[in-house]
Amino acid sequence: QKEVEQDPGPLSVPEGAIVSLNCTYSNSAFQYFMWYRQYSRKGPELLMYTYSSGNKEDGRFTAQVDKSSKYISLFIRDSQPSDSATYLCAMRRDSSASKIIFGSGTRLSIRP
Amino acid sequence: NAGVTQTPKFQVLKTGQSMTLQCAQDMNHEYMSWYRQDPGMGLRLIHYSVGAGITDQGEVPNGYNVSRSTTEDFPLRLLSAAPSQTSVYFCASSSPGTSGAPGTQYFGPGTRLLVL
Q1: C-alpha–C-alpha distance, residues A23 and A42, integer Å
Q2: Looking at residue B70, what DSSP letter applies?
Q3: Closest chain B residue to A102 measured between Cα atoms?
Q4: Using beta carbons and an 8 Å cutoff, which residues of A are at the interface with B?
Q5: From CA B17, how far away is CA B52, in angstroms rounded?
Q6: Radius of gyration of chain B from Cα atoms?
Q7: First CA to last CA across chain B, in angstroms?
Q8: For a tag site, which of A73, A97, A98, B58 has the least CB within 10 Å?
Q9: Which residues in chain B show pLDDT less than 70?
C-alpha cells in the first residue's frame, strides 16, 4: 500500500466552478501537508502548506487537513483556465525532515 | 538567482550505458533530492542529501548512485541504464525550515530520459 493515495483524474470542470482535490495517507507521523502545482513539462511548485489539522486559506485556494481521518483536501474557488495543471499532494514528518512523500497527482482541466 | 538547474534537458541512452544527470542550486540550500516521475506514479524519491558529504536512499534507489561533494551540486549517476529507467527526473532543493514552517522545496525543470 502506498503511503499517500491520490486520485489521478483527469478532472474536467467549467470555468468558475469549485474544485475539490483530495488525498489520503496511512502514516500518522506526517505533520506537514503540502500542495504542489505542476504545469505541463515543468517542475512542481509549492502552492501552499498546512501544519497538522485545520484549514488554511490563500486567495482562491483553501487547504484542509483532517488527521483523524488521514484525509487532506484542496479547494479552488472561482476556477480559471490558468488553474489547469496537475496538482500533487505531499507530506513530511516535521519541518526539518528532508524526505517528502508525494501523491501521484490529479490532472485538472478548467474548460472556458 | 538561477534557482535549481538541471542538465541535460533530454537524453537518449542505450541499455547498459552509463550517464550522469547534473543538478546545481545557487540558493545555499542544505537539502537536495532526486525524484523520478512516471505516469500514474507521481514523484518518487530516489536519493536525498541533507548536506555536503551526507546522502541517503529514498524509495527507489536501485540502479542509481549519488554524491554530494559541495553544497551546490548533487549529480545522479545511472550505472547501467535499463528501459525501466525511462522517466522524467527532477532535482529539488530546500532549506531545513523552522518549527511550524517547513522549508520550501524548489524543483528544477527536469531531465527527460529515454532508455532504448
Answers
A1: 22
A2: S
A3: B43
A4: 4, 6, 8, 32, 34, 41-46, 49, 51, 88, 90, 92, 94-105
A5: 28
A6: 14
A7: 36
A8: A73
A9: 99-100
